[in-house]
Automatic annotation (TrEMBL):
UniProt xrefs under Pfam families: p25-alpha
Record protein name field: Tubulin polymerization promoting protein
Major location category of this protein: cytoplasm
Matches recorded under PROSITE patterns: CYTC (PS51007)
Protein's UniProt keywords contain Iron: yes
Annotated Gene Ontology cellular component terms: cytosol; microtubule; microtubule bundle; mitochondrion; mitotic spindle; nucleus; perinuclear region of cytoplasm
Source organism of the structure: Strigops habroptila (Kakapo)
GO molecular function (one): GTPase activity
InterPro entries for the chain: Cyt_c-like_dom, EF-hand-dom_pair, TPP/p25
Lineage: Eukaryota, Metazoa, Chordata, Craniata, Vertebrata
Compartment(s) where it occurs, according to its Swiss-Prot or TrEMBL record: Cytoplasm
Disordered: region residues: 1-39, 165-195
Extent of Basic and acidic residues compositional bias: 23-33, 175-194
Length: 219
């Protein structure tokens, strides 16, 4: 009986116990893994950074409330025009409008960056007919990457008979005429108020201030 009891005892577990993990090492390993993944994702995103940057610049053009994540049809047309996607031959403004309506959602008025790339892929087939689909897409990307909206110069004032009549001081009458001298220069305060003449000369006398000159000349 004693021998049987000895044989029925549990075998000893020979596997050595695991050493307690080091929390600092675990955090370092996780951080290294995260940084590696982030670098990989950043490298992928970097390939489209120039294109996405152009998209955002055009998306916020003329709209202070825009976030740059979505683009309206007006800005889409401007991008295609400023970046010479529209060449007037293979791609026209009508083609651009048709593609935008096709790509955007039925109830949406804007396109996202992903939809933007789809629209460019559609236009690239027309813009670069002599190239493969992949080459055409790359060529149309090159037209847009790093570009920004072209801001037109200050519009010059258009001359009209009405404006000319209102600004021609020689045709002014009454109190308005008194505000300007014969050359059209404003008289300032003298043209707005009646200033008292305390020179001692009679009003309208044309030889004021010549007395001293005459006296000195006679000596």
């Amino acid at each position: 009986m004693a021998d049987n009891k000895a044989k029925s005892t549990k075998p000893v577990n020979k596997t050595p116990p695991k050493s307690p993990s080091d929390p600092a090492k675990d955090r370092a390993a996780k951080r290294l893994s995260y940084d590696s993944n982030s670098s990989h994702e950043g490298a992928i995103a970097g390939e489209l950074s120039a294109l996405e940057e152009a998209f955002r610049k055009f998306a916020i053009h003329g709209d202070t409330r825009a976030t740059g994540k979505e683009m309206h049809g007006k800005n889409w047309s401007k991008l295609c025009k400023d970046c010479h996607v529209i060449d007037g031959k293979n791609v026209t403004i009508t083609d651009v409008d048709i593609v935008f309506s096709k790509i955007k959602g039925k109830s949406s008025r804007t396109i996202t960056f992903e939809q933007f790339k789809e629209a460019l892929q559609e236009l690239s087939k027309k813009r670069f007919k002599d190239k493969s689909d992949e080459e055409a897409v790359q060529e149309i990307y090159k037209l847009i990457e790093g570009k920004a909206p072209i801001i037109s110069g200050v519009t010059k004032a258009i001359s009209s008979p009405t404006v000319s009549r209102l600004t021609d001081t020689s045709k002014f009458t009454g109190s308005h005429k008194e505000r300007f001298d014969p050359s059209g220069k404003g008289k300032g305060k003298a043209g707005r108020e009646d200033l008292v003449d305390d020179s001692g000369y009679v009003s309208g006398y044309k030889h004021a201030g010549t007395y001293d000159h005459k006296v000195q000349g006679s000596k």
